[in-house]
């Protein structure tokens, strides 16, 4: 029992570390994007080459951190690499839909939250793919947990909109009630800790 709890704590800690690094990468990419828009592409202080170098560096750091949950779940080295690459695709989807949500929130926010939950879901389950004969229970429990967290994040997003409603247009909401819009993101980001922990708890061995 003590070994199981240690494995769960290690998986949750790896998910938390991955979340922190990926959040930093998203903030860095957003900052680079804002800087490029603010100063323009021509004659600006931010050269497009540096912009893309910064984006690539942020994605590389995020990809390295996304391998931590797979390592905590006991995946082998080549399997860790494949899992990290798959998780990077999910992280790229998160970044893409975050930018989409700035333009079309009612379309981009649900997809951004879905990608945020799906990234640790796919990464955790793919990490134990080698134990295909034993994954029925972990897969079922992890999927149920992911769906519950996603639904809770959507409910939190609707609640945030209702609490700050009073102006016209999303920029008003974003400017006046941005702390409320962090709530669905926080709810969805808990999946980065919870889902690896579920897999670690229910995985045999």
Structure, described:
With 205 residues, the chain is mainly α. It has one domain. It has 9 helices and no strands. Helix 1 (2-39) runs antiparallel to helix 2, helix 2 (48-65) packs across helix 4 (77-103) and helix 5 runs antiparallel to helix 6. The longest helix is centred in the N-terminal third of the chain and has 38 residues, at 2-39. The chain starts with a helix and ends with a helix. The model is unreliable at 167-174 (pLDDT under 50).
Which short descriptors sum up this protein?
205 residues, 84% helix, mainly alpha, 9 helices
In short, what is this structure?
The protein is mostly helical and 205 residues long. 84% of the residues lie in helices and 0% in strands.
List the helices and strands and how they pair.
Blueprint: H1 2-39, H2 48-65, H3 67-72, H4 77-103, H5 105-127, H6 136-164, H7 170-176, H8 178-189, H9 191-202
Number of distinct beta strands: 0
- N-end to C-end Cα span: 11 Å
- H-E order: HHHHHHHHH
Number of discrete helical segments: 9
């Amino acid at each position: 029992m003590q070994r199981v709890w240690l494995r769960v704590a290690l998986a949750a800690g790896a998910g938390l570390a991955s979340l922190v690094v990926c959040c930093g990468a998203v903030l860095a990419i957003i900052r680079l994007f804002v800087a490029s828009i603010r100063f323009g592409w021509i004659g600006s202080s931010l050269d497009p080459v540096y912009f893309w170098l910064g984006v690539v560096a942020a994605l590389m750091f995020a990809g390295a951190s996304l391998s931590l949950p797979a390592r905590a779940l006991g995946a082998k080295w080549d399997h860790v690499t494949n899992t990290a690459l798959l998780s990077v695709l999910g992280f790229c989807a998160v970044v893409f839909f975050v930018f989409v949500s700035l333009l079309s929130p009612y379309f981009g926010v649900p997809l951004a939250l879905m990608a945020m939950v799906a990234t640790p879901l796919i990464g955790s389950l793919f990490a134990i793919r080698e134990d295909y004969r034993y994954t029925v229970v972990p897969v079922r429990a992890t999927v149920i947990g992911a769906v519950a967290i996603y639904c809770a994040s959507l409910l939190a997003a609707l609640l945030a909109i209702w609490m700050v409603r009073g102006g016209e247009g999303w920029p008003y909401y974003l400017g006046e009630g941005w702390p409320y819009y962090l709530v669905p993101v926080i709810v969805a980001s808990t999946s980065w800790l919870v889902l690896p922990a579920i897999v670690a708890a229910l995985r045999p061995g």
